[in-house]
Amino acid sequence: MLSRALVELGHHVDVWSGQPYPELLDGVALHEIPSLDLWNDPDKPRHEALRQVRDSIDFAEWASTVTGGFKEPITFCRRAARRLTSLEGGFPYDILHDNQSLGAALLPLQAHAPLVATIHHPVTRDRRLALEASRGLKQWWGHFRFYNFLPEQIRVARQMERVMTVSDCSRQDIAAEYRIPENRMRVVGNGIHVDVFQPIAGAVRVPNRLITTLSADQPLKGFRFLAEALALIRETHPDMELTVIGEPGQRTGTADRIRELGLDGAIEFTGRVEDHEIAERYSRATLAVVPSLYEGFGFPAGEAMACEVPLVSTRGGALPEVVGEDGQCGVLAEPGDAADLARAIREVLSMTEERRATMGAAGRRRVLENFTWRRAAERTVDVYREAMALREERAAC
């Protein structure tokens, strides 16, 4: 969506991407950088993948994956840099924008054009929470090994000319954890696709139905605290149900915890669904819940607000920056606290339908005023121009 908004502002945009390839709109060119794509298909036999290895980059990716590491961001940068520097007719771009790949192979490209990067939040937080939630030494080591890309990403981030991030909270946390000077960082909030995430005409809210999204079943998303909160709420609201946009992880223990709490018949996992169906489900839910322990921005909160659904959100990370003042567009709860999450949900349930509708309408207004993709594109262009001006100043010295 950012690329589309940039084109609408009059800029030429090419997207260089590995798998899974994005669906781009007219006017945006896609340059595919295929990888072995091993993490997208974890059941693929590793010996078959080895037969696909053609060069040292492929081998590095394969060797890291079979030992539990996630090297795709780093190897993507190596492949992309190799292609970019071999283009005929000279280097074609005025600016390079990396979306948190942060491989060292990108740094030499700064000789051709200014390089900026978006870091959505410090992934050191994801790693720390995953390690803390590990059940046993084997799982701890698996999580530690998975994040083997982080040291290189941190080194590279410190050498970027400008770093964009999506919230003030992320800016402060990245500065602290990656040790990047804050004067090289700029806040450019994400956008919400408000033409898709909007209230559905004629939709009727179903009583006692909560909704949440689980894009990835990781400790960071705080789903187990929502499940525990649901069990508490069903003591007084036995008909309360929860729809989860997503599915439980195979090795996370989520399914076991649901059974332990006696919630087998109370939670529906939708699996992967299209955005328009998410909007429809939001429009029929009593309220949406974002139980995350930490968010660098908070797309689930913004998308729910754009659909005018009343919201309960934790204060994890940047979520208060998206949701706004407690009680206006949503009710806030402490992250990692099932009892407080249940308290916030009960507070919204106790409101009149008119009060909840007012809260939902305020949420959409907040999104339209602050979190559209056009506004994000305008702020992004400001950072591009700043990086280009800085390059010209250095060249003149």
Explain this structure to me?
The chain is an alpha/beta fold and 397 residues long. It has two domains: 2-191 and 373-396, Glycogen Phosphorylase B (Rossmann fold, 3-Layer(aba) Sandwich), CATH 3.40.50; 209-370, 3-Layer(aba) Sandwich (Rossmann fold), CATH 3.40.50. Helix content is 43%, strand content 13%. It is built from 16 helices and twelve strands. The chain has a six-stranded parallel β-sheet with strand order 9-8-7-10-11-12, with helices on both faces. A four-stranded parallel β-sheet has the order 3-4-5-6. Strands 1-2 form a two-stranded parallel ribbon. Helix 3 (56-66) runs antiparallel to helix 4, helix 5 (123-132) packs antiparallel against helix 6 and helix 9 packs across helix 14. The two termini are 38 Å apart. The model has no long low-confidence stretch (mean pLDDT 93).
List keywords for this structure.
397 residues, globular, four-stranded parallel sheet, Rossmann fold, 2 domains, alpha/beta
Counted by DSSP, the helix tally is 16
CATH class annotation of the largest domain: Alpha Beta
The percent range for strand residues is 5-15%
| Low-confidence sequence ranges | none
Helicity range = 40-55%
Q: Could you tell me the mean pLDDT?
A: 93
Label the overall shape: globular
CATH superfamily of the largest domain: Glycogen Phosphorylase B
Query: Secondary-structure element order, as H and E?
Result: HEEHHHEEHHHEHEEHEHEHEHEHEHHH
Number of strands: 12
Strand order of the largest sheet: 9-8-7-10-11-12
Number of domains: 2
What is the level-2 CATH architecture name of the largest domain? 3-Layer(aba) Sandwich
Distance between the termini: 38 Å
Task: Classify the fold: give the CATH topology of the largest domain.
Answer: Rossmann fold
Structure classification: alpha/beta
> What is the CA-based Rg, rounded?
22 Å
Major sheet description: 6 strands, parallel
